[in-house]
Structures are given as C-alpha cells and as structure tokens.
Design goal:
By secondary structure, the protein is an alpha/beta fold. It is 42% helix and 18% strand. Helix 7 crosses helix 15, helix 8 crosses helix 15 and helix 13 packs across helix 18. The chain is globular.
C-alpha cells in the first residue's frame, strides 16, 4: 500500500510539475505557494463581455506584463460573477477603489477601456484626478484604423485631451474605406496636427499609396518615420515642398497622380497672423489656389480643403484668409475640370499645435497660474482623431453624391465649451483644486479675438445633409474668387506691406461675401490694430 501511495503521489507530482512548466497560468497560480510574488501590473478591463473574453484569451497566449484583477461591464454584474477566473465588478467606482488599493500596496496599476460602452469621462474629473495622481495607467484598445491590424491586446495610453472630450460620434466606416482603400492619397501639411492624423487614418484604411508633403523638415521626417514603422508595406513618398511654390507643386502632382488630395497646410495662429498678414495671404490663399490648380491639372478625382470656424464672419487676418481660401475652392467647384472639390469646416481640436490645452498643461505643470483671455469666452472642441474621422466622412458623403449641392461641409461640434470650465477640468485631472492649488488669471481679449465662435457665416444658409454634417451655401451671390484677385493679393503680400495686405484682404472678403467693406461682423471683438 505504501508503495502504491508513493507511486500515485509521484505521478500526481510529475503531472503538476509538467503543468507548471508548460502552462503559464498554472505556473503563476503555483508561485504564491513557493513564496514568489506575481510582479505583473494589476489590470481592470472595462467594456462589453465579449470584448473582455477575447482580450483575456489573447492575453493568456503571450508573455504579458498585466494581471487582470477585475472586469466592469454595464449591466453584467447581474448575470456573471467572474469571467475566465477574473472577478466582475459592479461599476467603475468599485474598479477605481480596487486600483487605488493595489497602488497603496506598492503595485503600479492600470485600467483598459476595450470599446465605447464606457469611457474614462464616466469616472468624473475627481476620480480621474485621483487615478492620474497615483500614476494609474489609463489605456485603451485603438481602432483598426489607428493600428492597421487586428491584435486585440494592442494598447495605448489615453492622451490627456481625450479625457476632456465629449463622447465621440460613431460613424459607419464603409463609405470612408471605399473612398481611400487602394487609392493614391496626397496630404499637404502632412506633418501638422490634422495632416499627420489624416495620414494615419488613410494608412489604416488601406490606401494604395500615400504622398506626404510639408515644408517643415522635422515634421515631415517624424510622420514619414511613423508611417514607415506602423505600416511598413505601405507604398509612400515624401516631399519637402511649400504649397506657395506652384511649379514644384505641379511637378509633384504630375509625378504622383493622386486620386484624393487633402489640403491641410496652413498658417493658423491668430495673434501671430495679426502681426504677419502677408505670410497668411501667401500660405492660406495663394497656397490653396496652387493646390487646387495642380489638382485640376492632374485630374485628381477629389480635393478636400480643411477649413476652420475662424473663417466665419472673421474679424482677424487668419480667419479672413481661410475664408478667402474657401472662396478659392468654391470657385473651382463650378469651374472646368473633373475634380470634385470639397470644403470641410470645423472648430478647435484638443491638443493640436498652438491650441489652448498644451498651453494650459505647461502652465499647470510649472505651478500656474493658468491664463485665459475672458471668463465668458467659448469654443467648439473635438479631438484630432474625431475631427479627421468626420473630415473623411464628409469627403465620402460628397464623393457618393457627385450631383449633390456644392458648398461647405460643417461638422457637428456639439455644444461650445467655456474655456474657464476647460481650465478647471484640466486642473482637476492633475489631481489639484482650481483656485487653491492652481490660480486662474484673466488677461483680457486679444486683438481680433471673438468671445463666441460660430460654424455658419451670416452670409450663408445651412441644412443637415448627412450624419453629423451640415451643408452650407451662400445666401447671396458674391463675387467669384478669380485668378486676378488671387494674383493681386499675392503681389501686395510679396511687397511685405502688412497694412496694405490687411486692407486688401478685408476688401476682397467683403466683395466675396457680397457685403460692403463696412459690412456687419458678428461676435464680440476688439478693434483691429494696424501692423
């Protein structure tokens, strides 16, 4: 009997040893019994149960740095207590408490949002601030358009501006994929905030060839390297060119033969363009004319101009030149050629170069104060990925309706946000209290700055024409933006006479909008200063 018992014990021991050696989960379960500690980062999963199950299955296949400790799925607590050995938590509050307790035991922790069922904003600013103050990682599984693949365990950290945004608009990507899949796509301003995100999304949607054009050496190098690393098999070409140079631009279009062009190159900093109106004319107006002409000459199927809400009843040079650039593209819409021209107009994007969020972040990180120009100032906001998704959506909508109305597509930006509320929310996300830990200081409106931005000009009418899209057309028939008008602006801008360039910009704008030079301007603004 003793021999039999020893044989059985040894057989069981060998079976357990074999399991421990070959099964990662069994090995990890066995470690506490021999005094070892699981050093993997505790991870809470947030999302639908099917996504959580897929994620756990994929996580178990490889050597991962995370140890799932909880799952949050809205309404799931009533039907399941655990999934694949991981406890199902009742809500996000319980998940936060669990993560903070792990951190208090000296373990770094993380939470991953698997889909849009719940988002970090559902936690509230105070809870988010607590998690960020404790260095808890806030992760998400990117969309297929972002990663260009199907690996459900690929994760990236939320950017801070994503924690400030409203819930993103959910759109059908079928039409967008049909727009760019297998197509030759060219992006001007490819290294900028919007241009680089366009490059990422069209690469993820399977474009056939991507052309990146920018006049900034570092910005172009950075996006070219990123595209090459993330989509190594994608055919691409980069050009260090300026849209002001028509001859070189025409050569690029002739050589690359793009099917779709996204024109994102622009000078967009309002105070800076107030001091340099000549530069604003040469890039924003002349550059757009050059791109449109090159697109027409090369037989591009679709050209899209990226505009801004600053072009609506503009009191400043940047907005005025973008409104004239819109007029350039609108003139092309009714001109000769087979190219379909579209204008897409949207408001501020969180986290873009020169935007308010990076400025506020830098001020908070050095201890304040956070400065804003007026306590009542409001702006429309969305994240860069959402803005680009809507641009692609608008372009696909236009491409599907070649005989549809011509004009400007305006994106649904939701409700405007008070900048002071944005500042308070951002301070809270740093785990600090506005007014106590970080002061907020009002400095006064700058020349040409509006209190409130709008999406439709007083000389325009708008109607809904698709999901999250409005189509905007002129109320009155103003003058067409002609080659002679563009060249006159170019000649004045090339002299470097900023006062003359500013005067001509607003005179031309009044003519295009069918207004007198002293026509009404909406919004509360300060008097313009002469350069």
């Amino acid at each position: 009997m003793i021999v039999l018992a020893l044989d059985v014990t040894m057989a069981l021991g060998l079976a357990v040893l074999r399991r421990v050696l070959h099964d990662k989960e069994a090995r990890r379960s066995f470690l506490p019994f021999v005094g070892f500690r699981d050093e993997r980062t505790p991870l809470v999963l947030v999302g639908r149960m099917d996504r959580a199950e897929t994620f756990l299955r994929e996580l178990a296949r490889g050597e991962q740095e995370f140890r799932p400790v909880g799952i949050v799925c809205e309404g799931a607590g009533a039907v399941a207590r655990e999934l694949r050995g991981v406890k199902v938590l009742p809500d996000l509050s319980a998940a936060t408490d669990l993560l903070l307790s792990e951190v208090d035991r000296g373990r770094p922790a993380a939470v991953v949002f698997l889909d849009d069922l719940l988002s970090p904003t559902d936690l509230g600013v105070e809870r988010l601030g607590q998690l960020r103050a404790k260095d808890v990682k806030l992760l998400r599984v990117p969309s297929l358009a972002e990663i260009g693949g199907v690996d459900d365990t690929v994760m990236r950290e939320f950017k801070l501006e994503e924690l400030l945004a409203r819930p993103p608009v959910s759109l059908d990507k079928t039409a967008v994929k049909a727009l760019v899949a297998g197509k030759r796509v060219l992006v001007t301003g490819a290294g900028g905030s919007i241009g680089s995100e366009i490059c990422r999304q069209v690469a993820g949607l399977g474009c056939g060839h991507l052309v990146l054009l920018d006049n900034s050496e570092f910005s172009l190098f950075r996006i070219d390297q990123e595209i090459g690393d993330r989509w190594p098999t994608l055919s691409r070409a980069e050009y260090l060119h300026d849209v002001r140079n028509k001859a070189r631009l025409t050569d690029v279009f002739r050589e690359e033969r793009p099917d779709v062009v996204f024109h994102a190159a622009a000078l967009k900093h309002v105070p800076l363009m107030e001091r340099h109106p000549c530069e604003s004319v040469l890039t924003n107006v002349l550059g757009t004319w050059n791109v449109a002409e090159a697109a027409n000459a090369a037989g591009v199927k679709h050209m899209v101009f990226i505009s801004t809400d600053k072009a609506v009843d503009p009191p400043n040079v940047m907005g005025a030149t973008k409104r004239l650039a819109e007029a350039v593209v609108r003139a092309q819409q009714t001109g000769e050629g087979e190219t379909r021209f579209s204008v897409v107009r949207f408001g501020n994007v969180l986290g873009s170069a020169g935007s308010v969020v990076p400025t506020f972040r830098a001020q908070i990180e050095r201890g304040g104060p956070v400065t804003l120009t007026h306590p009542d100032i409001e702006r429309f906001f969305m994240t860069i990925p959402e803005a680009v998704q809507l641009v692609l959506h608008a372009t696909a909508h236009s491409a599907q309706q070649p005989d549809g109305p011509l004009g400007v597509f305006v994106l649904d930006m939701g409700k405007p946000v008070k900048i002071i509320d944005l500042a308070r929310q951002l301070i809270g996300l740093y785990g600090k209290v506005p007014g106590r830990d970080i002061e907020i200081e009002v400095t006064g409106l700058r020349p040409g700055e509006k209190l409130f931005e709008e999406l439709v000009d007083s000389s325009e009418v708008a109607e809904m024409c698709g999901q999250s899209l409005m189509c905007v057309t002129d109320r009155l028939k103003g003058a067409r933006m002609t080659e002679a008008m563009v060249h006159k602006l170019e000649q004045v801008a090339c002299t470097g006479d900023n006062a003359a360039a500013r005067e001509l910009v607003f005179a031309t704008l009044a003519e295009v909008r069918a207004l007198t030079p002293d026509g009404e301007r909406s919004g509360s603004v300060l008097p313009m200063k002469r350069a």
